[in-house]
Amino acid sequence: MIIKKGNLLENNNNRRMQTDVADWFRELFGQFVEWMEDRTDRELNGVQAVLIAVGVGVLAASTLAFAVWLIIQVVHLIQWVFSGNASTDIGHALSALPVVHVATDPIGAWAEQHAAGLPVSAATLLTVWAVGGGVLFVAGLVGARGARIAWPLYGAGTAAMAWAGAAEPHRPIAAGLIVLAWGVASILVLHRGGHRARTHITNVLPAREPAFDHHQSVHDAEEHVRTRTTASVR
Q1: Is-above-0.90 flag for pTM?
Q2: Which helix (H) or strand (E) holds 47?
Q3: I need a surface site. Which of 30, 109, 182, 195 has the fewest CB within 10 A?
């Protein structure tokens, strides 16, 4: 008997909760219909209101799903960047391009020739050179004046290494590709953005002279003559 009363009480609570939820949805739907009528300046019947509500619901669900998918992709991108795989994958992708080898292989050959007898390998020297270029690039982006001054020197040095390390017929091509890549990067590094100096021109007009009053001049002349005549008579 006690179990039956407990079940009955639980069923009543469930029904009351379902009724409250239904009332909440009914009130929300009524507010939505009133909002749509205010927006469209027309009365909506039941079918129109239901169709519009379904369309809005589908659009909201699609937008929410896309937002969740986009957040997941951003999280994966951050993990890919900070896991160290980004640089490796980008390096593999670039190394697979033949045109990249045309420009970089001469630099590696030049480093191999001049690293003989040094306590470090040519690969280490090239790594230091590449890291230094990355530091200059980032510092130039944030506006460091020293990095912007050193950036052209870095590009010229890289092009010179490609020229010296390439075979005689290929030197212009290797150096030209380096200059091209360096020039594209320079668009970002050497761009001044919103810090460009502005010149303001202010026109200063001369003070206007008072207008010539003809009647006042005639009056002053007559007064002057009258004064001289009176002085002569005396």
Answers
A1: no
A2: helix 46-82
A3: 195
